[in-house]
Design a protein that fits this description.
Layout: E1 6-11, H1 17-29, E2 34-39, H2 49-56, E3 80-83, H3 86-96, E4 102-105, H4 118-139, H5 141-147
Parallel strand pairs: 1-2, 1-3, 3-4
Helix pairs in contact: 1-4, 1-5, 2-4, 4-5
Length: 148
């Protein structure tokens, strides 16, 4: 079975979860899949510094990511839309109502809900990163194995 050729990750603000997922899938799939990410609303002009830090730990540079919203998409023809928050799932359902694409909901914890010192917060971001990495390897296994 052929996998998707284009994937969109969506979360609430496109500053942590969906950019992390986008970067991980780009890393494991290379140029074999077109990957993008969006948020329902934009509140931060840049990716979260904790997200940048934990992605750097696994060799992925997230520092150049610029958050964007669903309305900023130039093309909404994706084979697969993966929403990572309930709010994004609602918006993705609306977007895909008139298109022929698959929709998956990976309800992903928001690490900004964790308060504490830097190490406690970094641990929460690492948990999200590692969960997304495992889920992407599970979902796109053949691509992840080829790239390993």
């Amino acid at each position: 079975m052929a996998g998707p050729t284009s994937v969109l990750f969506a979360c609430t603000q496109n500053a942590i979860r969906s950019p992390m997922a986008e970067a991980i899938l780009k890393h494991v799939a290379g140029s074999r899949i077109f990957v993008d990410s969006v948020g329902v609303r934009l509140e931060e002009p840049e990716p979260d510094p904790f997200a940048v830090a934990v992605m750097k730990e696994i060799g992925i540079d997230l520092s150049r990511h610029r958050p964007k919203a669903f309305d900023d998409l130039e093309d909404d023809n994706f084979d697969l839309v993966i929403s990572l928050s309930p709010e994004a799932q609602h918006r993705a359902v609306e977007m895909t109502r008139t298109t022929a694409c698959d929709l998956e909901f990976w309800n992903t914890f928001d690490p900004t809900a964790i308060e504490g010192n830097r190490e406690v917060r970094l641990a929460a971001f690492r948990q999200v990163r590692d969960m997304l990495l495992a889920r992407i390897r599970e979902r796109f296994g053949d691509l992840a194995q080829e790239r390993a």
